[in-house]
Amino acid sequence: MTAPQLPPFPPIEPPRSTVVFPDPRRLGAGQQLVGVSRAITPGMALSAYRRGIFPWPVEDEVIPWASPAERAVFPLDAPPDWPRNVRKAINRARSDGLLVTVDVAFERVMSECAGARPEGTWITTDLTRTYVELHRLGWAHSVEVWAGPDLIGGLYGMALGALFAGESMFHRRTDASKVAFVALVDRLRARGFELLDAQVMNPHLENLGCIELPRDVYLDRLPGMAARPLRFAG
Questions:
Q1: Prediction pTM value
Q2: Which among 185, 205, 226, 207 is positioned nearest to 72, based on CA atoms?
Q3: CA distances from 121 to 52, 117, 136 (A)
Q4: Distance of CA 223 to the CA centre of its chain
Q5: pLDDT of 32-91, one tens digit each?
Q6: What is the DSSP letter of 83?
Q7: Domain encompassing residue 171
Q8: CATH number at residue 18
Q9: H or E element: which one contains 72?
Q10: How many domains does the chain have?
Q11: Alpha carbons 42 and 130: distance in angstroms, whole number
């Protein structure tokens, strides 16, 4: 496995987007859709994250932008109390000699995340192109889990100051995504990150220990976190 080229730090700003996103605070309690576009660029995506909004495409032609009323997050201010099944996964990974890397195979991780969902995926061609460019500029990052030469799990997301916004994860072997998630949390805590944003709660995230924050609380914390430039890679 060749050593990856480290993403630039501080990250490079992409060309500025002319799109102005609405304030998510104006959404009603049961609303999460901020707007819809027909295109996505790195500048648009970065501007959206800075306002607490993320893209959630349903197909290549339509890109909804969302800010959930309840935000799924993983707190980083205390050592995690991992559930028993997660602790077992970590112990098994150690005994199996699995290797965890960072930013070694970003585009492959995105491709695996897109292909690992039989119900379909929001990881469209335009979205992939956008995040690959954000990775090149130093904003987007991946965590990979390897069994020998085989990529068996991983995740990717955006590092925005002291906030990491997780986008998607996958596994090709049982519990490999849990191994990637634990490795991500360990790295974020070691480097002083304040919050791991998991966006929308589901049973898997709840089992990992994610909780929900009201949208206004998340938006109140966002500017302070985004203003603290922390290095994720390297």
A1: 0.93
A2: 205
A3: 22, 6, 23
A4: 18
A5: 999 999 889 999 999 999 999 999 876 667 889 999 999 999 999 999 999 999 999 999
A6: -
A7: 1-234
A8: 3.40.630.70
A9: strand 70-75
A10: 1
A11: 5
